[in-house]
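Reopening this ticket.

The earlier resolution said the output was attached, but the attachment link was broken on my side. Pasting everything inline this time so it's all in one place.
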Amino acid sequence: MTEARPSAASRVDNQVYMVFPNDLNANDTVFGGMIMAQMDRTCAVVADRHAGSICVTASVDAVHFMAPARRGDVLVFHAAVNRAWTTSMEVGCKVEAETVGGGPRRHILSAYLTFVALDDTGSPKPVPALSTETETERQRYREAQLRRDLRLQHAHELRALRAKGKDA
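Inline output:
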C-alpha cells in the first residue's frame, strides 16, 4: 500500500464554467443535469489524482441544489477527497455561482460522490489512505464514514426486502 496522501494533493479549487444560453432551461436557469455532469467530471479528476489511476463513479449521494444559477453566471467548482477506504473514496463537491465579471458568490450545490479506482484489467484496486491536515478535513473525514455506513445499511435493507419479495 502506498503512503497516505493529503487532500490538498488532489483537490480542485475555483474550476470555472461559463453559463451560455444552451445551458438554460425554460425558466432561464441552468439545467441541473448539466451542473451534475460538470461536477462528476471535476470530481473524477480529484479521484484520479488521489488514486493515481482511472476511477469510475460508483454512487452520488446527497445532491442538494441550494439556489439556481442563471443566465450570465459563472459556475465555480470546488472538490476534494473526504475519505478513502480500500478501493473507493468519497469526493465532496461544492458549486458556487457568480455573475460575469465577479461579485459575490452564491452557494448553489453540494454533493458527495463515491469513486472506485480501477487497475489495468478494470478491476477495483487499492487506493492510498487520506491524511487529514485541518479540523475541517477531519470533520469531513468523520462525516464521510457516516454517509458510507448509511449507504451500506440501505443497500443491505433493500437486498433483504427484495429477497423477501421473491419468497412471497
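Reporter confirms the inline version is readable. The chain has a mean pLDDT of 96. The domain at 5-167 is CATH 3.10.129.10 (Thiol Ester Dehydrase; Chain A).
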